[in-house]
Amino acid sequence: MIADGWADYEVLATGGGEKLERWGDVVLLRPDPQAIWKARFDLASYRGLNARYNRSSAGGGAWQTIRPFPSEWEITYGKLRFLIKPMGFKHTGLFPEQAVNWDRMAALIKGAGRPVRVLNLFAYTGGATVACAAAGAKVTHVDAARGMVDRAHTNCTLSGVAQDAVRYIVDDCVKFVSREKRRGNRYDAVIMDPPSYGRGPGGETWKLEDNLYELVELTSSVLSDDPLFFLLNSYTTGLQPSVMDNILSLCLPQGRHEGYEVVLPTREGIVLPCGCSAMWTARSGR
């Protein structure tokens, strides 16, 4: 699935473990472990480069300013608006390749012909939340990091999303879903973007390969009697789309399901792999 609907974002060049990107009027150079081929030129010498993220041999890294640029700025995707801000560990606050999933979910919501309640878990800065709410859904946005939830609120405001369209929750996703199950709360759609590794509030260790099936199985229990879709995302290297597709097939009711790679087009004429997704949708007439 190629996320080729952007005007404000573009991958200019890749190679040598890095990607050169244009975010609106700002050009950034960031590490990318998938770009293992040789770059066609020295990416750091690009004339319009504003900043580069340099990894440290001790772990982590830091941004190096090449040319002055704002500390944060806005970009648009159609009618959606997002705040971009270079942060620690090379992030900018948005995963542009997910636009291909935003479009799919928005179409499903608009075509449902009924109110749709969406549960967005590990929801980060709310790209999917904005897309679903703008399409008419009521979204429950859950993330353990308050700063990311605040950023999601900002993105919703920038995009003109109604105040009552999104419920913002700062909580551990597994604990939240468990409580929702006990409360009897149900959702018509689920979005899940779990991390590869992490720790829970009690120091519990999270590893995607070991916990993903149980998490999807648990979350499937809060689907409504007339579910619309279930989207699963992963950036874990080595976890194939067919694995996630199998998990959705085993955990969810009869419907359509597919796993696929999500990629970005580049100015070089190749595509940059950015992760994998799997989506379950109800069959027509459910």
Question: What can you tell me about this protein's structure?
Answer:
With 286 residues, the protein is of the alpha/beta class. The chain is built from 6 helices and 16 strands. The strands form 4 sheets. It has a 7-stranded mixed sheet. Strand 1 and strand 2 form a beta hairpin. The mean pLDDT is 93.
Which helices and strands occur, and which strands form pairs?
Layout: E1 9-15, E2 18-23, E3 26-31, E4 51-55, E5 61-65, E6 73-77, E7 80-84, H1 99-111, E8 117-121, H2 127-134, E9 138-143, H3 146-158, E10 166-170, H4 173-183, E11 189-192, E12 197-199, E13 205-207, H5 208-220, E14 229-234, H6 241-251, E15 256-265, E16 271-281
Parallel strand pairs: 3-4, 8-9, 8-11, 9-10, 11-14
Antiparallel strand pairs: 1-2, 2-3, 4-5, 6-7, 12-13, 14-16, 15-16
Helix pairs in contact: 1-2
